[in-house]
User: Fold this.
Amino acid sequence: MALLGFSIECNHFAPPAGRSQFRCLLADDAVVDDARSPTPVALGEMPGFVADMDAAGPWQPRPIYLAMAEPNGPVEHPFFEALCTTWRDGLRALRGHIDGVYCVMHGAGITTGDLDPEGTIQRMIRDELGADVPLVCSYDLHANVSDEMVACCDAFVGYRTNPHLDMRERGAESAQLLRRLLAGERTYLSSRRLPIIGPSVTLLSARGPYAEVIDLGQARQAEIGPAIWNVSVMGGFSQGDVPYQGMNVVITGDDRAAVDALADELAEAAWARRARFVALLTPLDAAVQRAKDSPVPLVFADVADNPGGGSSGKTMWLLRAFLDAFRDAAPGTVIVGIINDSLLAADAHAAGAGATLTARFNRPVDGEEPHAFCEPLTVDAQVVALSNGEVTGRRGIFKGTSIRLGATAALRIGGVTVVVISNRTQCADPVFLEHLGLDIGAARAVVLKSRGHFRGGFDEFFQHEQVVEVDAPGLTSPILTRFDWRHLPRPVLPIDQVADWSLR
Ligand SMILES: [Zn+2]
Assistant:
């Protein structure tokens, strides 16, 4: 069984990402060794796949190469080409000895020279091995689905949860579908692309229009039975800005009529809900007022500066506003996390725990372009805790995963405690704050740089009603009219008026 993977979500508006931005680069046996470890570096798909295969009986994994990164800008194309050479050489060396292929994808990758790298990889696998060797691919829920991605695989398995809590299950499902293919069953895939770009905050799977379509898909699959192998309703990643963008329903099954009918039905169901795919955010000044007035603690999501969507994790809009409002409050009243600023983290480590320092956020670096939207902020602070940032995820998408935040510091600025890290990561797990001794449950307001994955980690502190999605500038803003789109198919909702759409 050949195993490989390419997983990165690329924001077209962020600076390009090279090899050093990939936090997980695993070659050969290291792919399977990592998957079998109690705290893998890779996200859950490969561990889920390998565990399911191990449980099903003897098998021979032939891992080639797995490349995974935090969301970022477009991948530097020469690095992508080098990865393709590694995958191609690995497949050629195994040709004639491979029964099936499992490929971990994200689906919202782009490179500086290729707007459909997943399609390129899948086509390459087909070209190398032929159509008779089954290929199963799994994807993030935010995949932008190209025609090539659907044409070049035998089973298309997308996440069903946002926050993403089913990565291991989808890896295991991929193994189960691959075994059906190895037993001689054959599939037919059908997809329907809609002229809808769901703003990120509208793509939750617990409630809302998108959740309703996912739930309908699961219910219909259960009713129809084994002829439908998988139902994937892919929300897409808006800031990918690719020509094949749009919410996409992809059905895998072995009964062509049933597959086509279900694809039609779910596409119609999504279209019927089109008016609800609109971002409704709270203006920053209103958010701060809610923090002051609320009888219960609240969490404030900086959805526009989400490192989990390729943003810098450095913008100061929310920190500045909460400092203005809560500087004179009791220590620990507000927690802000996590700001990506390796220079400031190094300053805090040099000063030492307990020391006071002049914290210079976003200081200019000679020879480097400043990040978009990242203004400097200088303020006196006390270092209250330090760490090397080596943590194991406790809840949500990073649960059980080894994460390296790099040199990390908690700085107290009056009533606001801010956590500064060195390796850009979204604040999806409470352990990122807790490992420094911060008491999340005692805070009146917690401000997080995360669009939505924090919901899977901080849900033990905050119910849905305690979440405030704040409107501020940033590279991952869900207000899509603010971007200078280059490749999106137009017209598309909710950016344009789309009067009419039909399946035929
Ligand atoms: Zn995602």
